[in-house]
Amino acid sequence: MEDFLGENIKTQEYFLNMGPQHPATHGVLRLLLKLDGEIVHNVDMDLGYIHRSIEKMCERDTYKQIVHLTDRLDYLSAHINNEAVCLLVEDALNIEVSDRIKVIRTIMSELTRLSSHALWWGVMGMDIGALTTFMYAFRERELINDIFEETCGARLTMNYNVIGGVRYDLHENFVKRVKALLAQLKQKLPEYDKLLTGNVIFRKRLEGIGYISKEDAIAYGLNGPTARGSGVSCDIRKIHPYSAYDRVDFEESIFTEGDSYARYKVRIKEMWQSVHIIEQLIDKIPEGEFRHKTKALIKLPPGDYLQRVETARGDFGVYVHSDGKKSPYRMKFRSPGFANLAALNKMAKGLKIADIVAILSTIDIVVPDIDR
Amino acid sequence: MTNSELKNKITAWFDGLTVENEEGKFLTVEVPQEIFLDFCRKLKEEGFDYLFSLTGMDFGKELGVTYHVESTASRQMVQFTVKTADREKPELDSVRDIWPAAHYHEMEAFDFFGIVFRGHPDMRRLFMPEGWKGFPLRKDYVDEVNMLIR
Asked: Does residue B17 lie in a domain region?
């Protein structure tokens, strides 16, 4: 065995497939692990098991149709993805939307973030082996989905944002229900901490595991909560504010330890901040139009356009190279998960297989977002 | 630094750069292949440390890649494009030594456009199955079975 793989090794090094069908990869992600016993030497990935060529489809569709393709990317941030395309087109055509639309979009985005983070928290516990958390998280998540259903007509891929506004006006129960949700979250989020955050077994699985330094985080293009766990200030809501984020007060959640536990804490804090943002807006939804009339067929002037938004996973970007026709010449979705996954090898090297599961959970990947 | 200040700085580095879009959100630069790597190194030294995205492009006569890089300190962004010599044997220099984030992005551009990045250690298909014929995001790609053409 001396020359196996051309390296001098005492024990046998071998390859193991993790996925594509594996409960802890959150979808059809295939990881190629190079192992020595249970120690991870290298992680490589093979993607595309759920690739639908959405970017190619965009070159055929009109801008209004494209909006509805984007919530099939990161389905847990469906609303925010829709918003990115709408903002891009509105910005390119100089459509100034009313304050009501801006506030509705912001509240909906934060509800989306809460719902996504609630699911993440439940699955996080489950990946580590604590099945109860999933049930606790879904208790709150159902309420959010009910709110979406009432106003948007759908629970997951809402298709609520359209170019020039939102599809329907808010349901009459919206404010009442959101307030009830906020009250419940304030009561139940400390329960999350009691159950998981302070748990000794849980912390031992995360603390010091999957470390990545601030310099590496920037170099590998990490973004969103994953990068903020390494102390990188990268919240698009702060650095390039859009919709109503410039008029609310909130704190960017940053932790500097750079390990899995820091990334966990970032998201828990973000849930509190989302509650704080919605609280500031919910009593002050301005009157006004909820949808502006736009042309039936939208054409963007030739040029390059880029819009970035902060989804629950991070820095989502839509890039359009337009040649003035009804469809984009080239449309690129810059997926936050794809960039975050690139650093997995760096984080997991030298650890155990079970740690990969924990790290994947704290990166919070959504495979359709990576595969596009 | 404003966009026009950055433009003055960039144009002083090399000849042959086309710099546009001073009034927009970010500068758009077209870089000739010969000075491409030097240009990237200069940009990194200037503080543009975060590779936001790397987009493969089909320009018709040639292929190319559009990069968006940002400075994490000032949050200024630059877009720059480099084109291949032709579309029969498209080759570009890899920037993964400058921005490690480019590793998988370059594999994606290879997969969809067939652009080979010189200096990349693992030029294989990332999304499409091994042995797939053709490069799907090229404009002349035809697949009568899987594509709906309007």
From this structure: yes
Write the DSSP string, A145-169: HHHHHHHHS-SSS---EETTEESSP
Write out chain A residues lying below 8 Å of B58, CB-based: 330
Q: How far is B12 from chain A (nearest CA, A)?
A: 24
Query: Is B55 an interface residue toward A (CB < 8 Å)?
Result: yes
Q: What is the CATH number of the domain that holds B109?
A: 3.30.460.80
Confidence grade of residue A192 (pLDDT, cut at 50, 70, 90): confident
Structural domain that includes position B111? 3-118
> What is the bridge-based pairing of β-strands B50-58 and B18-20?
unpaired
Question: Hey, CA dihedral for A340, A278, A185, A197, is it positive or negative?
Answer: positive
| Cα A86 off chain centre by | 18
Q: What is the distance between the alpha carbons of residues A67 and A149, in angstroms, rounded to a whole number?
A: 19
Predicted confidence (pLDDT) per residue in B92-134, tens digit? 889 988 998 899 999 999 989 989 998 888 888 888 888 888 8
Q: How many CB pairs under 8 A join A and B?
A: 81
- Nearest CA distance, B35 vs chain A (angstrom): 22
The interface predicted TM-score of the complex, written ipTM, equals 0.88
Q: Tell me the pairing of strands A161-162 and A165-166.
A: antiparallel
Q: What is the spatial distance between Cα B4 and Cα A137, in angstroms, rounded to a whole number?
A: 50
Does B14 reside within a domain? Answer: yes
Class of domain A51-348+357-371: mainly alpha
Determine, yes or no, domain membership for B125: no
The answer to whether residue B131 sits within a structural domain is no
A240/B75 touch (CB, cutoff 8 Å), yes or no: yes
pLDDT at site B84 = 86
pTM of the complete model = 0.87
Q: What's the distance, CA B4 to chain centroid?
A: 22
Distance from CA of A178 to the nearest CA of B (A): 34
